[in-house]
Specification:
DNA polymerase, domain 1; five-stranded mixed sheet; 13 strands; globular; DNA polymerase IV
Length: 356
């Protein structure tokens, strides 16, 4: 089998960049696309001017305005973002039909065999970036390598407007040098646990056997074992159906206050609502995930009479489910909110955001 050529394209501050492109008065200013602080909203995307103040996606809008008092909030225009995303996708299709969208603003491309017979994955990435810049007046960052995991990490290395190539013979050394907190799926809590075990880089993880990694980190341990060796055999899968959309967060300090739990559910519900609107989806089944301080994990679900996508209904249903559990008896270290059982399906499979 020929070695694959994978590109990960990530639009730079996509929603915010579209707003600044369409409204010259917003250019050069700190803006956040998302819900207003008074409505318990969250930041969907922040411009690079806002990011200098520490404003980040998935951050509560109230916290964002504290970090940047001059922050300008813009209500999301998902129909516009979807239209622009389709234009970006048209650029991709000039080069390959093997496109796996992860959201409106990022996708994997398998260009092992490209339509224009350019041959060079770097050359293809350069052409895609140039077309997006010239035709849409937006910028994108690209990561190029032999598998999805490495390409995704590479695309984030030189943002904005970056292009990073990790050559086949450099992949394993690259993974060895990578700090554990840069591994996708390794958040603050897991990284802290690794650091406490003197595991700071991929090279440190590589010293452990697969059995040891599974014992320490559960099922993800098998993935860590492979990926530190540069092994990721997942193919680029176009036309994957959406089964669920969810967001979850592991907390640095366990929650024992119902008011704090409600605040976190509101935030997670807002994130899920934004994602549902991105994909034009509505779901009937609301699910919460709870992991207690003793690592016991449970899920609770409720199916509604009609499909929904609004934050208020998702948050209210999630809170009702939470109140039926032992929140006063045990501290909570993780909460998650998900929506499934869609009225219409499309997009990518099991979209989950892990927030740390």
């Amino acid at each position: 089998m020929a070695q694959r050529k994978i590109i990960h394209i990530d639009m730079d501050a996509f929603y915010a960049s579209v707003e600044q492109r369409d409204n010259p008065e917003l250019r050069g200013k700190p803006i956040a696309v998302g819900g207003l602080p008074e409505n318990r909203g969250v930041v969907a995307t922040a411009s690079y001017e806002a990011r200098k103040f520490g404003v980040r996606s998935a951050m509560p809008s109230k916290r964002a305005i504290q970090l940047c008092p001059e922050l300008i909030f813009i209500a999301p225009r998902f129909a516009v973002y979807k239209s622009v995303s389709e234009q970006v996708r048209e650029v991709f299709y000039r080069h390959t039909d093997l496109i796996e969208p992860l959201s409106l603003d990022e996708a994997y491309l398998d260009v092992t065999e490209d339509k224009l017979q350019i041959g060079s994955a770097i050359g293809i990435a350069m052409q895609i970036k140039a077309a997006i810049r010239d035709e849409l007046q937006l910028t994108a960052s690209a990561g190029v390598s032999i598998n999805k995991f490495v390409a995704k990490i590479a695309s984030d290395m030189n943002k904005p407007d970056g292009l990073t190539f990790i050559a086949p013979d450099k992949v394993e050394a690259f993974m060895e040098s990578l700090p554990v907190n840069k591994f996708h799926g390794v958040g603050k809590v897991t990284a802290d646990k690794m650091n406490a075990l003197n595991l700071f880089t991929g090279a440190d993880l590589k010293k452990l056997t697969e059995v040891e990694l599974v014992r320490l980190f559960g099922k993800p341990g098998s993935f860590y074992y492979k990926i530190v060796r540069g092994i990721d055999e997942r193919p680029v899968e176009p036309n994957r159906e959406t089964k669920s959309i969810s967001a979850e967060d592991t907390f640095l300090n366990d929650l024992d206050n119902p008011a704090e739990m409600k605040e976190q559910l509101d935030r997670l519900a807002a994130i899920v609502s934004n994602r549902l609107q991105q994909f034009d989806l509505k779901g009937k089944t609301i699910t919460i995930k709870i992991r207690y301080s003793d690592f016991k994990t449970l899920t609770r679900s409720q199916t509604l009479p009609a499909a929904v996508c609004d934050q208020e209904t998702i948050a209210a249903t999630a809170l009702q489910l939470l109140l039926k559990t032992d929140i006063l008896e045990v501290k909570i270290r993780l909460l998650g909110v998900g929506v499934s059982n869609f009225a219409e399906e499309g997009g990518v499979e099991n979209v989950q955001l892990k927030l740390f």
